[in-house]
Amino acid sequence: MLETVSLKLNADELIKMALKEDISNEDVSTNAVLKDYKKGKADLICKQDGVICGLNVFERVFKILDENTEIKFLVKEGEKAAKSQRIAEITGDMRVILQGERTALNYLQRMSGIATYTSEVANLLKGSKTKLLDTRKTTPNMRIFEKYAVKVGGGNNHRYNLSDGVLLKDNHIGAAGGITNAIKAAKEYSSFVRKIEVEVETLDGVKEAVAAGADIIMLDNMSVADMTAAVKYINGRALTECSGNVTKENIKNIISTGVDYVSSGALTHSAPILDLSLKNLHPVEEV
């Protein structure tokens, strides 16, 4: 689970932005039916099978609106929930529950959807040495949540952002005047603690990257036959990564190549949400 300190330092401002997007001035509907404070309770219901992810982000939405909101979770982070299962109880000011409902659900549905999809893909790699990675193909201002959801689903994070690691893609190579030049420049500029990854699309590119001393070689949009030949040629002299339109429908074909890592943008850009709903809001007596 996202640590509370990390959540407050890195995510609170993003959550507040999301709340401001939804409540620019006031919640007209809620204010029309609830003039004053009234304590209430609601149930969080899972409407389809899936992996639950983002419980403390869900909670944080309501806590930012009112620290007195109480949430009792009936499942743990990363657990699978079944259709119609009640996964949380929310108690507090009914105005706050109504105001935070959509923003909280948006986070939880999105994160749970990514965790569920990632889990399905990761299960296809079980028994192989190949590890599953995400990419930077994330929703703007949602990266911290989406990459976390990948980890909860059983995947691994590639670099977090452009400051996090050296990855020389086709346009970097074009700008540098070739693979050898790009790797040489990266080695001269980057700290010795950083690995140099380079993207290649052909077997000739693989050979050049090995000769230039790349630490990681990304085999981009290559056929299974070419990837197999590339991994055999590299023979442990560099780590290998497969990339390019990888989905749960075709990932099994990649395992036989012996590649070390497979990265899939689909984990974050194509995962459907997990359908969740806040239901049964009703007043409760003050104790």
Give an overview of the whole structure:
- The protein has 287 residues and is α/β, with parallel strands linked by helices.
- The protein has 2 domains: 4-121 and 272-283, Alpha-Beta Complex (Aldehyde Oxidoreductase, domain 3); 127-269, Aldolase class I (TIM Barrel), CATH 3.20.20.
- It is built from 11 helices and 12 strands.
- It has helices at 4-22, 28-33, 55-65, 94-124, 143-152, 170-176, 179-189, 203-212, 224-234, 252-255, 266-269, and strands at 39-46, 50-51, 70-73, 80-81, 86-93, 131-133, 166-168, 196-200, 216-220, 239-243, 261-263, 276-283.
- It has a 6-stranded parallel sheet with strand order 6-11-10-9-8-7. The protein has a 4-stranded antiparallel sheet with strand order 3-5-1-12, with helices on one face.
- Strand 9, helix 9 and strand 10 (239-243) form a beta-alpha-beta unit.
- It starts with a helix and ends with a strand.
- 37% of the residues are buried.
- The mean pLDDT is 95.
